Amino acid sequence: NKVSNTHSNTLQPSYDLKSVHFYHSLLCLCAQVNFVACQLFALLMAVWFRIYLHPSKTSPFIRHVVATLLGFYLALFCFGWYSLHFLVQSGLSYSVMVFAGLENMHKYCFIVTLGYLILCQITRVYVFDYGMYSADFTGPMMVITQKITSMAFEIHDGKNKYGQLTPSQKYLAISRMPSLLEYLSYNCNFMGILAGPTCSYNDYKAFIEGTCYQPRHQENANGKENGKYKQTEPSPKNDVISKLCTCAISLAIYLSLYKLLPVERSIDDDFVNSTPFHLQVVYLYLAMLALRPKYYFVWTLADAINNAAGFGFNGYNKDGSPRWDLISNLRILDIEFATSFKLFLDNWNIQTALWLKRVCYERCPINPTAATFLLSAMWHGVYPGYYLTFLTGIGMTMAARAVRHNIRPYFLVSDSYKGIYDVITWAWTQVAISYTVAPFVLLAVGPSLKFYRSWYFGLHLLCLLVVLALPVKSKRRQAKEQQDDLQKDNQTDHNSTDNNCNQKEKTT
């Protein structure tokens, strides 16, 4: 009896652990199936919305109501009563916009919206479901946070008549406070409630009112790209079909590879001790390459849904074909063949990068690069791996900027030299991205530091040496110096003109 009791006590925890793991895996699978099913339903509703609720057939009020109700239905189906957090977050932020003073409204709204998101993330991660990749309710809240904060800054820019705005800020500025229905429709419409992408309020309003095909961008002032083509309302059918094919290919690749190449294997002791370092580098690159199609699938499907509803038109190409990439979130080929850290980030999660640029980088007076990476880490969540990734990203960005500024000009003397430079920088970019993003996938502190220790923190030290050896001026400082030089030149020209005038007066 003593032996049997000991044996049963030994096996019981393992059995319970397997049961819990199976239960969590089943929940994750159900959540993912629900997400895909809801997105396919949204795709069908988008086609119906474009055909039967066309702006020529119904009013903007009806389109706002239907888009909002369908969005709430999808949220309720996927997340249950957790979807009430979407309303709470939106309601608190709208109250701040209405009752706070215009001068600081955007700052208060930013703090309240981001603070509520972080509170929900802390509760979900450390109370309910640590380390699980389930389709949690904070995912849509991240997109809603982008939309709310963008709108707050755009309202502030629209009312700030005496402020100095960039051309982009002038284009995005909102001149009238949106109604509650317009606000909820913008935040929670069925096309973007589950996976985004974010967009500007002015673009969404133009889509609802049916004016999105009218040229409002400066480069499309005549409604055409090269003066030869003009269409009143192009069809998104070809682009939607193309993006759905991309989704199918991405999903097939992801399901085929993600279990064969787990990132966690890169920190396995047997793997690290028995595998040469150069093969570890290759394995890490392949493991990250196998993960990316999941994001390609989600973001491309979300883009196709918006296009199917008629949202996302962005002018015409040189051959007259319509472009439907206004709110696209990625450019796959530019990602896979990026030759610099910046190019990779510019083509990955594009709308989030634009949001970070508009609300932080362009407005932060002190070290905007570090502030932007920190905000990105806070927005993504509270896992320590996120912060390790984005802190590493700061060093990578500075080192890549220094290399590009100091070394790249020497390789531009001929096409062959530039080709060699592109191949080398492509390889380094892929390694640097994989190294930087590993903690983002591993999540916890222990595995992330174990991974970096297995690489002896090599790229961290290399970035530090590059930054110290190849200093480079920030873009803001360069722009300021160029502006100062231009002002000096203008002042010199002005003084020269005055002297010439004085000499003429004396001669006369």
TrEMBL record:
| Segments of this protein annotated with the region Disordered | 478-508
Q: Where in the cell is it found?
A: Endoplasmic reticulum membrane
**Membrane topology of this protein:** Multi-pass membrane protein
**UniProt KW keywords:** Acyltransferase, Endoplasmic reticulum, Membrane, Transferase, Transmembrane, Transmembrane helix
Q: What is its main location?
A: endoplasmic reticulum
Bias kind Basic and acidic residues: ranges: 479-496
Gene it is expressed from = MBOAT2
Q: Does the keyword Transferase apply?
A: yes
Q: What is this protein called?
A: Membrane bound O-acyltransferase domain containing 2
GO MF term list: acyltransferase activity
Q: Which domain of life is it from?
A: Eukaryota
InterPro entries documented for this protein:
LPLAT_7/PORCN-like, MBOAT_fam
The GO biological-process annotations, alphabetized, read as:
lipid modification
